[in-house]
Write a structure and sequence with these properties.
alpha/beta; globular; Rossmann fold; 8-stranded mixed beta sheet; 282 residues
Length: 282
């Protein structure tokens, strides 16, 4: 355990050549939260409104993914879906967690799908929120996210891409995320993850349609109708492909469902992951 004033830094665990920073709260069936790929993102920044509520009735594990946040790796470490999934398996093995439900946001949704494809027996249920994972023409919003060059103005513009409700964006939030994006070598690592042409990043994260058709897991798709980063049509295509899928779309909501619709999102997760309805209706 690391003692620090920052809530973003929690537990530290060596996995291969990398040291993962991860949050681990609560008891019960395990839920793995996988964050998105915005500049300066950490697990805590992404899930701070979700972890306390879910951990009242479940064990919640939320790592900073390789290449992000306070997780560290050698500078020449090759990052791709295989490496990200292997690091998650290593984390769960070290924590003696044989099976999880996975909640993946954006980039994290694609990694959740890759995990479920590679290790289907280790996954109970899937929640994919504003998820990548199928090919689509890269949006102007995603170009801005992956092409971010640090400045306060650029970060404010990104926040306005993420959120439908611009009233959520204030100077303190912009400065906090900007400062996170320039900490140590964060921007250097971030620029290496999704270089131009950035359509190749979309393709790298995409699974074949047959892989989605073969998923046996109950899957909840969640999307903001007004998402400018990953279009709603991606989740609608997943709904048609994944056999046991359902879709919940929020109106007047962008890419930040977990922030813009936090109470309703937590209720969805609780109902789907912790208190699923009985098959016999009892």
């Amino acid at each position: 355990m690391t003692t620090t004033a920052s809530p973003e830094i929690a537990n530290s665990l060596r996995i291969g050549e990398c040291t993962l920073n991860y949050h681990d709260q609560g008891q019960g069936d395990a839920i793995l939260l996988i964050h998105g790929s915005g500049p300066g993102v950490t697990a805590w920044a992404n899930w701070r409104g979700v972890i306390p509520a879910l951990s009242r009735n479940a064990r919640v594990i939320a790592p900073d993914m390789l290449g992000f946040g306070y997780t560290t790796c050698p500078g020449d470490w090759k990052l791709d879906p295989t490496a990200w999934v292997r690091s998650l398996v290593g984390l769960l093995d070290a924590l003696d967690v044989p099976q999880v439900s996975i909640v993946g946001n954006s980039f994290g949704g694609a990694i959740a799908l890759a995990f479920a494809k590679a290790y289907p027996q280790r996954v109970r249920r899937l929640v994919l929120m504003g998820a990548a994972g199928l090919p689509f023409p890269i949006t102007e919003g995603l170009e801005k996210v992956w092409g971010y060059q640090p400045s306060l103005q650029a970060m404010r513009e990104l926040m306005e891409v993420f959120a439908y409700d611009h009233g959520l964006i204030n100077d303190d939030l912009v400065r906090m995320r900007y400062e996170a994006s320039i900490r140590d070598d964060v921007q250097t690592r971030f620029a290496q993850l999704f270089p131009a042409p950035r359509q190749q990043g979309v393709e790298m994260l995409a699974l074949a349609e047959d892989a989605l058709r073969a998923l046996p897991h109950e899957t909840l798709l969640v999307h903001g109708r007004d998402d400018k980063v990953i279009p709603l049509e991606v989740s609608e295509r997943m709904l048609r492909l994944i056999p046991h899928a359902q879709l919940h779309a929020f109106g007047e909501c962008g890419h930040w469902v977990q922030i813009e619709k936090a109470p309703a999102f937590v209720r969805l997760l609780t109902d789907f992951l912790i208190d699923p309805p009985s098959c016999n209706g009892a």
